[in-house]
């Protein structure tokens, strides 16, 4: 295996996942992962550019940054690339009026979006909001549309809270895809557009950047397909069985 | 197109789907579909054998038969092939102890099943029971098992109630499959074992039977793959767009 210096040659920017890498979310704001507050501080003191690239869709960027600052992280809103603002941009460009199946914590990101007479469905990690009633409403709306549009903020299978593994938006996206016979448009990792917007925010090319994440598909696989290097951490949702996949890849 | 008499030559038994063919379920017990009470009565008066072959998993057979009898149908419990009793048989044979993500209405079918220290998950059309909390419990249990077993009572996408289309168990099965990286075992239509048990109950061979249903995948496709003839009704969940599929098939 090549030495670290060799593997990191030419790296000018670092994309950092948040949940499972910097902290585990949960009751009381969550818990920082050991060493991560200091690691971010060291990156910030280095010559490297840093952007936080998250699929967090339960909190607005403002709320997320506030939580992380309380835990001791040096982070500001402008340094966060998140799927909710990217989705608002897409809705605006395409004249889409969403039915939102999302968590109340992220609703403020959609404050200026027209939601009258919906012509698409947007789902995010709604947590308890994924009730049968809400899922059925999204389903019925998609079935009534001539050209059903389903936008999903990420497609993660699960994430880790301090209390254990929790279902993410991906399984619910799959449920609606199967029910309606549609394919969702994913906004967030591993979508190339999303990695590119994070790179743009740093002003760094793909081959000059490394993604650090806990999700082998969303973070590591997605970044590598975009020409970035990637680093799999063993915190968060990491599972030992993935090592076999990495060895076989 | 061949005449009816030709298409039905040699038919000795009829498998009848229930929901969407005999009645639409819903508040107050649901509504019979026009002409269906009399159609069942005529079949019963004919030389043909009749078996009701349903994926109903919100009600026990006893409750389902009581509902249908109140609506005027000539039906008894022994004439119903349903996935819950078939699942109990499988659990017993394989020493499986389920966590049940099911509707309260069907729980009595599992009264004699050992549910201590679960080593598998059984999902059925749980309706409002498909809360985030219950789904997450099923997910966590599957993730903790070395050999995760997920049994799904049917895999229907949706069904029709008097109030409109409703999500069936299939989308939730897909959600858990994706979240856990497992493949569910489906008990119910379109599984060949299920059609065969319905044929056995009638004492009729596949080539001597016709399935009448409203689901192009579960009823029509499943039956045809088992060597039965099949008839697609235009009630229940039927959608005009399926005609294109039938023409292209």
From TrEMBL, chains A, B:
GO terms for cellular component: cytosol; nucleus. Coiled coil: none annotated. It holds the Pfam family Hydrolase_like. It is found in: Cytoplasm; Nucleus. The keyword Metal-binding applies. The keyword Hydrolase applies. SUPFAM superfamilies: HAD-like. Keywords: Cytoplasm, Hydrolase, Magnesium, Metal-binding, Nucleus. Its EC number is 3.6.1.1. Its main location: cytoplasm. Its cofactor is Mg(2+). It catalyses: diphosphate + H2O = 2 phosphate + H(+). One of its GO terms (molecular function) is phosphatase activity. It is an enzyme of class 3 (hydrolase). Belongs to the HAD-like hydrolase superfamily. Phosphatase that hydrolyzes imidodiphosphate, 3-phosphohistidine and 6-phospholysine. Has broad substrate specificity and can also hydrolyze inorganic diphosphate, but with lower efficiency. This is Phospholysine phosphohistidine inorganic pyrophosphate phosphatase. It comes from Castor canadensis (American beaver).
């Amino acid at each position: 295996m090549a030495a670290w210096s060799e593997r990191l040659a030419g790296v000018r920017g670092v994309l950092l996942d948040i949940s499972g890498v910097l902290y585990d979310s949960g009751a009381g704001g969550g818990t920082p992962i050991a060493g991560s507050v200091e690691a971010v501080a060291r990156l910030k003191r280095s010559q490297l550019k840093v952007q936080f690239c998250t699929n967090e869709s339960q909190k607005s960027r403002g709320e997320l940054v506030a939580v992380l600052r309380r835990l001791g992280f040096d982070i500001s809103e402008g340094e966060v690339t998140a799927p909710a603002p990217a989705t608002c941009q897409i809705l605006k460009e395409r004249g889409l009026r969403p039915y939102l199946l999302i968590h109340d914590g992220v609703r403020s990101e959609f404050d200026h979006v027209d939601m009258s007479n919906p012509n698409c469905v947007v789902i995010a990690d709604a947590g308890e909001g994924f009730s049968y009633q809400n899922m059925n409403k999204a389903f019925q709306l998609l079935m009534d549309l001539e050209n059903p549009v389903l936008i999903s903020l990420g497609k993660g299978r699960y994430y880790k809270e301090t209390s254990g593994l929790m279902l993410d938006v991906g399984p619910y996206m799959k449920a609606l895809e199967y029910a309606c016979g549609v394919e969702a448009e994913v906004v967030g990792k591993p979508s190339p557009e999303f990695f590119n917007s994070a790179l743009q925010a740093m002003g760094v090319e793909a081959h000059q950047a490394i993604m650090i994440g806990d999700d082998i598909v969303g973070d590591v696989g997605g970044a590598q397909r975009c020409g970035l290097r990637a680093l799999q951490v063993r915190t968060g949702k990491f599972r030992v069985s993935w090592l076999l996949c990495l060895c076989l890849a």
